[in-house]
Amino acid sequence: MTARKKGPPTGGSGANAGAPDTLEGLFPRFPGTKDIRYHPVFQGGLSRWVWRYYTHRLTRAGRWFLGLTCLLGLVGSTSLEIQTYIPFLYAFAFWTVAGAAAAFSRPRVAFVARHADRVCAGETLPVEIEIEQRGRLGGADLNVLPSGLPIPVDAIPEGGVPVPPLRRGEKARVRLGLLCRRRGVYVLRGYRVETDFPLGLLNAYRVFGEERSLLVYPPFHRLARMEMPTGRRFHAGGVALASLLGDSFEFLGNREYREGDNVRDIDWRATARLDTPILREYREEFFLRVAVVLDTHVPRGGRRDEREARRAALERAISVCAGITDYIARQEYIVDLFAAGPNLYHLTAGRSLAYLDQILDILACVEENPDEPFAVIEPQIDERLAQINSVVCVFLDWDETRRAFVENLRRGGAGVKVVLVRDAPPTLDPSGDERAGAIPVIGRADFERGVEEL
Prior knowledge:
By secondary structure, the protein is of the alpha/beta class. The protein contains nine helices and 18 strands. The protein has a seven-stranded mixed β-sheet with strand order 1-15-14-13-16-17-18, with helices on both faces. It has a five-stranded mixed β-sheet with strand order 3-10-9-5-7. Helix 2 packs antiparallel against helix 3 and helix 5 packs antiparallel against helix 6. It starts with a strand and ends in a 5-residue tail after the last helix. It holds the Pfam family DUF58.
């Protein structure tokens, strides 16, 4: 695998995983399980402390009681004739006791979380959690929830999962879920164990920080059939010999054994019949090598709705590309995947050289490219064009640049199939280009129904 990049992202990539462009992430919809560093409003140290105190320390009942306390204090400060300062003092004393109790109620537990490192976008990742009580006092009213989640990952349930009461040395296992809404590479920063014992106003909590990478690969529909122009070329050695499934050979005939031949190929029946060592001779069969080229170009400028539509089309194109590579890999072809966002990715897979997970890893990381990617991809594919039988191009538009790219591949002797993923009319009419052949156009409605044939 060849991937030219500076390093893995720390928060998320491949799906605009940073701060949102809209007010969707504002306070009412930004729960305490999220990473405050992605909040579009709370950027200062003081505002972040207030947000953490409100979401982490105060319980739901505590927030209501805090509002009532502030109201009593406000009314009581205006006049001494209305003795509302007396209930305010009672409430203040109650807060003092709750704060002291929270200081001594911090959970003393051992914590272990287990989950897979890959999940499909739109699915819920199950997280198995084991908690052991270490404190002298029993653990009461414990609750477990994630801490520092990236924006596209939601906790299921949002408020966490309760832990049964534990005595010292006892263990409990609970399960929570992480709903991954968009593809990308994210970092899970840990979990939080909290308790509102004994008064239910303030949470005492302990954060278990453990950074783990989570790869969310694109969803795709498995293709049942795909037509593509192919030509067979003989590829001796090299890639073919790397197959873990075993090479495919065609029987040619028998000949006498020569020094250095593989003794496993001796035909023992013929040897016994002729009273001299006889060897079976084979010839390696042909196999297909297919390149898949992903168009990642989302141009700068234009209206915002046009850019968002283009980004949505890119996400669908990535899912279609995943379905195509899955189909080709199931046919035991050699697959060369080329994708150029800000970084160039090239992966050779198929015939057990790499599993489908590795292809999906690349597609999870691919980002949009404001520049045309073919200036980077074309030299890389030209170097390998003599060994490539077919090229499948997943484009976001059909214009002169892409048509010239396809013509160059055809002149190199490869069969080319073009798939266009787009809602708006393309720059050029693909149906009027006889040299390009039939170009299927996949719109949003087609994608949502599920693409089974290409």
